[in-house]
Amino acid sequence: MTIALPLTLHTFAHSSASWRVRIGLHLKGLAWTTTPVSLLDGSHKSAAYSDLNPNQRVPALVLGDGTVLTQSMAILAFLDEMLPAPALLPADPVERARCRAFASVITEDIFPVQNLGVRQKLGAEFGADTDRQAQWCADWIVRGFAGLERETARRDWASGRFLFGESPTLADICLVPQMRNAVRYQVDLTPFPLLVAARDHAMEHPAFAETAPETQPA
Ligand SMILES: N[C@@H](CCC(=O)N[C@@H](CS)C(=O)NCC(=O)O)C(=O)O
To answer: CATH classification of 93-208 is 1.20.1050.10, yes or no?
Structure first.
């Protein structure tokens, strides 16, 4: 079975979940066409986009045969299953579990509480202005990053490598966009030197640099 081409990625440049998928596509050597979905003007809630992704979130990946895939981690798993090299997880089962756990801290513990819909609700229903919303996001990022920094220190990770070895894995794919969110919310990264080093190393790889929000159409 092969992946039906061409691929169309419905994405928003500044969405970290979308960036994860762009990194994965690039790592797997796949080309794709971008269809921008603006979260700023609510395009993700339009009738047309809701037909494509009933959950009204980006990203969504449309395959050449019309199949629609959603949820960044499910899309990355699909890519890894269809194109096993380069692998997005370590070979060793324990390391795989640790790598998945690292990614989950970001995708399940940190990211959901700072998502756009959450921030909008904090503003509309709880009166939090943009500064308070940013503080909210920063607090959850700091808590999550503190754990990841401690975990990384415990693993004797050395800078100049990817988080789980010599090639990028889900851990790097999730960390880099989340670090960008941290910068956006003015998180002081000084307490997280290992995460900063991991981010900096990953950003030297074309799959990360060439898919960064700044490189995207919208
Ligand atoms: N768990 C989903 C999260 C997708 C998601 O929430 N994307 C954000 C942008 S990064 C979004 O579309 N937010 C819209 C909203 O919160 O209303 C994934 O990993 O794909």
So the answer is: yes
Tokens of 55: 């959950």
The CA-based angle 107-101-31, given to 5 degrees, is 55
Q: What is the pTM of this model?
A: 0.98
Q: How far is the CA of 184 from the centre of ligand 1 (A)?
A: 17
Report which ligand 1 atom has the smallest distance to the Cα of 58. 12
Q: Given the CA of residue 116, which atom of ligand 1 is nearest to it? A: 16
> Is the peptide bond preceding residue 206 cis, with omega within 30 degrees of 0?
no
**Do residues 18 and 32 touch, judged by C-beta distance below 8 A?**
no
- Ligand 1 geometric centre to CA of 12 (Å): 10
Q: How far is the CA of 194 from the centre of ligand 1 (A)?
A: 27
Render pLDDT for 157-173 as a digit per residue (tens, 0 to 9): 988 999 999 999 999 99
- What CATH number is given for 8-86 in this structure? 3.40.30.10
Give residue limits of the domains in the chain: 8-86, 93-208
pLDDT digits (tens, 9 = 90+) for 9-34: 999 999 999 999 999 999 999 999 99
